[in-house]
Design brief:
This protein folds into 2 domains: 268 residues, FAD/NAD(P)-binding domain, CATH 3.50.50.60; 152 residues, Helicase, Ruva Protein, domain 3 (Orthogonal Bundle), CATH 1.10.8.50. 31% of the residues lie in helices and 24% in strands. The strands form 6 sheets. Strands 13-16-15-14-17-18 form a 6-stranded antiparallel beta barrel. A 5-stranded parallel β-sheet has the order 7-2-1-11-20, covered by helices on one side. β1, α1 and β2 form a beta-alpha-beta unit. α1 runs parallel beside α13 and α10 packs across α12. The radius of gyration is 25 Å and the shape is elongated.
């Protein structure tokens, strides 16, 4: 029986270990922390958005970087297969708004427990506090792993699933990038992704803690067409803006602006056309015609937002509603549909959900996740130069690439039957999928 060594006990690593074991491999799972799934545990504020219940077009559409590379991985173990896998492992799931899938319990620990059961069933040898130092390679073939304590583990295949640089307190320090680079792999420039944005305008701080739902956001370079548009929920913070909508926007901002300035526009009333908004303002103003402007906006905005909107409107707060001119009303309507902020940068890896960049996918076989440079070396998850938007899509990348890498490693070691035993397709079937 061939031995598969999986480095990293996060989402992709646990799935790779489970898949390799399901397909007949003798698996050793090495994790530098004292427990598995440390980052997974805090994902989605502790709820763990395991995947997204959408069709394949939407699945690929939410991948920001190198979506075509994931063709075999996604079709071999898609979101439906992942959901079935977790349900069969005893983790009941539910689908919420936007197709987001969570454990019924709302506890990420249930996802980790599902893995623990599968790993135990597969007789996976889990080694805690085992930090990999380097890969052992001879004549272009991986032979094992050397650890920081000087010990060596020999194997027939190695899956590198060490994650990226985000949330360093969970152990993410870029070790996988270094180990891959030492053996000849190119590492695409890394940066925080799915991360809050910093804003120049001081009034933004006055809104700290305010959450806005159902707003439309766009990002653009000065005087240029928007390179991102989205709809959803956002949050004002002491440094700028955050929330699901902003995190998704940050992926495009990081790719386009590389930390430079950009214009962020908010449509606070996206359900209303400019004409409908004007009628709404006329109606509200008529109902409050004898009130001061600053006291007439309770039906339009949360109370915390009103002073800022009054300031930005240029209309004197004490001005009576019936005194407001048509031009002032038009300017106010434009502000509501085009609230402008200046993005000055992104927050750091400490607040980033994922890492952009990583092992160059051109050097990885998309049908197996095996290195094209070192035979027997496989990659899975965030260590690869692939990333997606919020909503469960990044974890789906982890499940799909982890499953394919683990299964491929097991087959290469000669431990898989013609069709295998897993939830997804076998490698033989995957090789018929055109990439």
């Amino acid at each position: 029986m061939g031995k598969i060594i999986v480095i990293g006990g996060g989402a992709a690593g646990m799935m790779a270990a489970a898949a390799a074991a399901e397909h007949g491999g003798e698996v050793v799972l090495c994790e530098k922390n004292e427990k598995l799934g440390k980052k997974l545990f805090i994902t989605g504020k502790g709820r763990c958005n395991v995947t997204n219940h959408c069709d394949m077009e939407a699945l690929f559409g939410n991948v920001v970087t190198n979506g075509k590379f994931l063709y075999s991985a996604f079709y071999g173990f898609d979101n439906q297969a992942a959901m079935g896998w977790f349900e069969e492992a005893g983790c009941r799931l539910k689908t919420e708004r936007g197709g987001r899938v969570f454990p019924v319990s709302d506890h990420s620990s249930d996802v980790i427990s599902a893995f623990s059961r599968r790993l135990k069933r597969g007789n996976v040898d889990i080694r805690f506090q085992k930090q990999a130092k380097s890969l052992l390679v001879q004549e272009g073939k991986v032979k094992g792993v050397e650890f920081s304590d000087g010990r060596v583990e020999y194997g027939d295949g190695v899956v590198l699933a060490t994650g990226g640089l985000s949330y360093p307190l969970t152990g993410s320090n870029g070790d996988g990038y270094r180990m891959a680079e030492e053996k000849g792999h190119t590492i695409k420039e890394t940066s925080p992704a799915l991360v809050p944005l910093t804003i120049q305008e001081k009034w933004c701080r006055d809104l700290q803690g305010l959450s806005l739902k159902n707003v439309k956001m766009s990002l653009s370079l000065e005087g240029k067409k928007a390179f991102y548009e989205g709809f959803g929920e956002m949050l004002f913070t002491h440094f700028g803006v955050s929330g699901p909508l902003v995190l998704s926007a940050s992926s495009y901002y990081g790719k386009k602006c590389r930390g430079g300035r950009a214009k962020l526009h908010l449509d606070l009333k996206p359900a209303l056309s400019p004409e409908q908004l004007d009628k709404r303002l006329l109606r509200d103003f008529e109902e409050n015609k004898n009130k001061q402007f600053k006291n007439s906006l309770g039906g339009l905005f949360p109370s915390k937002l009103i002073p800022v909107m009054v300031e930005l409107s240029g209309i004197e707060g004490g001005k009576k509603i019936h005194e407001i001119t048509k031009g002032e009303r038009a300017h106010f309507a434009h502000l509501i549909k085009n609230m402008e902020l200046t993005v000055t940068g992104m927050r750091g890896y400490e607040e980033a959900v994922i890492t952009r960049g990583g092992v160059c996918v051109k050097e990885v076989n998309p049908s197996t996740m095996e290195s094209k440079i070192v035979k027997g070396l496989y990659f899975a998850g965030e260590v690869l130069d692939v990333d997606a938007l919020t909503g469960g899509f990044n974890l789906q990348i982890a499940w799909s690439t982890g499953y394919l890498a683990g299964m491929s490693a097991a087959e290469e070691a000669g431990n898989i039957s013609a069709r295998g035993m897993g939830t997804g397709k076998t490698l033989t079937e995957l090789k018929t999928v055109r990439v």
